[in-house]
Amino acid sequence: MTFFRQRWLAMVGLLLGYIAIEWIEYGREQLLAGIEPLDPSVGLAFAALLLGGPSFLPVVVIGEIGAAMFRSGGQIPAMTALLPALSVGFSWGIAALVLRRFANLRLAGQHNLVLLIVAAAAASLGTAAGDAASFWLAPEQHDGAVTQVLTRAWIGDMIGAMVVTPLLLVMRPPLPLPSRAAAIEATIQGAVALTMLWLLFTLPAAAEWQLYDLLVLPSIWAAARFGVRGAVVINIVLQIGMVAAFVMVVKDADAVTAYQFRMLILTLSTLFLGVAVTERRSVEDTLRRRQDQLDRCARLSMAGEMAAALAHELNQPLSAALTYSRTAQRLLDSPGGDPTKLRAAMNGAATQAERAGMIIRTLREFIGRGELNRQPQSLPTLVRDSLALLELDYQRAGIRVEAVLDRTLPPVLVDAVQVQQVLLNLLRNAIEAMEPSSVPRRLVTVVARPIDPGTVTVEVADSGPGLDQDLVARLFQPFSTTKAAGMGLGLAICRTIIEAHGGRLWLAGNSPGGCSFRFTLPVVSGTKTGGQA
Ligand code: ADP
């Protein structure tokens, strides 16, 4: 229902447009020796046929007949006006049909503008042919030769179509409201355009100095800044100004035709520039939107990885705290439980809970600052503390631990919680590898020694079954695991931490008798390492 109402309203609007244009132009043609420098009704009709489709054709024909009769002051009968009106309807109707099928009517992209220009040029030729026929039928109504009449009719229609049609195609709702700054800039552009027109038609030497090019400035400015919308608006402003100047100043039909040819070139160039600018902006917008989507995806996946990493890191201290608490519970339940053992178990649980808190704090700080809290640390202390945290696990699994810590080890410049994280991950992996009953000899060795004046190396080796060859290639990739409850993040996190410290982590040895991991760390600058590996 609304659709039909809108359609009817548009048809009435088209007829009113015809009436308004004829009323404005009434009598002006006489001033220009019978030529019509611009036919906006053609542009209006073309836009209506493009947007509304063939159902607007009868309205266009009626409008054309009415306009011709009005122009002649009722001198020509409707039947004589019918032939040119049909030629307008036929030519522009076919052009509109083709464009509706093949072109984007918002002129998105250069090829759509080219299609519009070609279609309009062909249609205005068709109309001009109709005019030529009327010339042949009633030569006394025209001044000049047939070629002249044809050329003037063609340029008038073409300019009308190129100025009015793109304006109606592009400035359709929804239109965004311009910002204050844009509105001010557009007003200045309009003022500059009118000033240039005034100069062009009032300066005595304007023709001699070829000042026509003055109009290029506001055109390019508007198209470059506001794209196709700027182009269509500046084109109509300049065209209205031109027609006013023709009527008031030029009054010479040949000069008007020459101006109109230059105006057509300027109008088309401005449209091309405007379409190119809008096209580039829309490509930039699309790219920006894609980038935003990618960023959002990256952030989401980072958040997912962070959550997985946090779960992985917290798992160990929390399960250790649970084991200590259960031990404490058992000691409390058993009659005559040893208070020293009870205190040790409670202490163990508290230490593990503190450690969980520290992991969360470190991660939060890392996310907040994006950097590590690096302080000079004693490597032997870090190793011993890590071993102590896992003592219960070693004892339960019957694993012997050997730590070879070089006495000459200089302090390392590291984030203690993070490096302990690495040690705990490697040690825990070693324990888990040796847990199956098939492993007869259970030994973990930690060796730390300097390798060059600025670096120390730490090796964690075990006597477990070693790694499968196909796992070795993707060992440090996230989510590579062979454990039922494993997340496959431990080694990936370890490598990230060590690399963030400027070191390296790698699989140093792998055999059925066990495997070893090695990593390097930087020493505090100014301190010397005591030896070579
Ligand atoms: P997760 O321990 O959660 O599986 P990791 O990244 O720490 O994740 O380890 C990945 C895999 O590497 C483990 O599932 C295990 O198969 C293997 N692995 C790591 N360390 C050892 C080791 N010392 N001995 C044998 N296999 C190991």
TrEMBL record:
Pfam family, one: HATPase_c
One GO CC annotation: plasma membrane
Coiled coil location: none
Keyword Kinase: yes
One annotated GO molecular function: phosphorelay sensor kinase activity
InterPro entries: HATPase_C_sf (IPR036890), HATPase_dom (IPR003594), His_kinase_dom (IPR005467), HisK_dim/P_dom (IPR003661), HisK_dim/P_sf (IPR036097), MASE1 (IPR007895), Sig_transdc_His_kin-like_C (IPR004358)
Membrane topology: Multi-pass membrane protein
Class of the enzyme per the UniProt entry, highest EC level: transferase
Record has Magnesium as a keyword: no
Catalytic activity: ATP + protein L-histidine = ADP + protein N-phospho-L-histidine
EC number(s) recorded for this UniProt protein: 2.7.13.3
Keywords assigned: ATP-binding, Cell membrane, Kinase, Membrane, Nucleotide-binding, Phosphoprotein, Transferase, Transmembrane, Transmembrane helix, Two-component regulatory system
Domain Histidine kinase: start-end pairs: 309-525
Source species, domain of life: Bacteria
Location of this chain's protein in the cell: Cell membrane
Membrane-crossing residue ranges in chain numbering: 6-24, 44-70, 76-99, 111-137, 149-170, 182-206, 226-249, 261-278
PANTHER family membership: PEROXIDE STRESS-ACTIVATED HISTIDINE KINASE MAK3, SENSOR HISTIDINE KINASE
The name this protein goes by in its record: histidine kinase
